[in-house]
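Re: the 473-residue chain
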Amino acid sequence: MTPKVFTKLLGLFVLLLVFHTVVMELILRGMVERSAAETFHRLGREALLSGLIALCVALPVAAWIASGISRRLRRVIDFARRIADGDLSARLSATGDDEVSAMEAALNQTAERLGQSFAEIEHRRQELAAMLDSMQEAVVAITPEGYVRWSNAVMQRIAGTQIHAGRALVHSIRDPDVLDCVRAALDRGEVRFGRASSMSPGRIFEISAAPLPSGGALAVLHDVTSIEAAERSRRDFIANVSHELRTPLTSIQGYVETLIEEPPAPGISKEFLGVILKNASRMNRLTEDLLALASVESPDYKVRPQPMRASALVEDAIESLGGIVVDSGVELESAGAPDALVMADPDALNQVFGNLIENALKYASSGKRIRVGARLLGPEVEFSVQDFGPGIAFEHLERIFERFYRVDKARSRESGGTGLGLAIIKHIVQAHGGRIWARSELGAGAAFYFTLPLAPGVSSPAEPNGPTHMAGL
């Protein structure tokens, strides 16, 4: 019982005693006026009566005070239970200035501070979750018992619906390399690195698993598929360049050594020098194409497009490149083109048409003609270079724009091709914001298409009008 409550009860009993004393004095005065015989008899009776009266008054008052204190204590207990259940909005109605009221005010202040602390913790948790979800890496936290504690959005996307909090990691992720790294972090408390290739089809991940200070482990998976592909492309590129250079260099070296060691007859020497010149020219073309490819693949490569008529581009290509087909017996013809304005860099487009027409010339000898044209196609113009030669097998169409890829390697080397021309024009067209592709059927020729966007402010008809392309392409 608090001192203030005790003081109140003590004051109540003092008042009751004063009341009892006053009653006794009144009785004693009456006793003096009566006979002595009656005095002692009446004294006992009046004393008992006054005590009963004082008791009847004290009991309800004490019960009322005790009931008020009990109600306030029950409110405190209910408040404590609500706080324990997580209801930090609970408050006590503190009234008065006694110790119970002071305790209620202190408890309200404690609950408010707890609410602020938990709100700050939840805010930081949400910030951490958002930060981890925005990462490119997949992250999963594991309990010491091997259960998933938490995983970010990337991990959930990779593992699908199998991974969620409370589920055993071994039942969520089947990749043995991931499980070995996590097991080492859990059992031996060491950081373990590895590579996983069966987490997701066609993707490769670098694994980093580390123990957590509070127990458990944290595994991070970094997708290195694109890096691996780039590294593989680099190795293939170096191997292809080395092979392309080694062949003419070996030929040049052999003929030069023959000329030095045993000079042949003048006619044979001229033939040898012609072979040397041919291989040197091939190396020069390869070097120029490599420099051109490096330029168009560079992030700094920019085209300077300007409004130009599609018909003018087709006519310029036929006029400027007509000379290369004169001696071949192949006819370079126009399939027509609209006058719509497109955004094009004339120098870059001349290189695109030149590579496509030279490529078609290698295979157009049987068809004896190459057709160049264009047509409107929605918000862009579609250009085409079409030959009527043997065509390209379907399995090659998706790869012919790769570096050093050749459909007919022997024929391409014989004609002096480097295997880089289509890769170069693909990057040029993409730099213009266009697309490039090929269609073909064996025995029916091949057609290469690319698009250029219309100049700003130019509208196109709903149904494009233009040349009809070869049937089946």
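The first strand starts at residue 138 and ends at 142.
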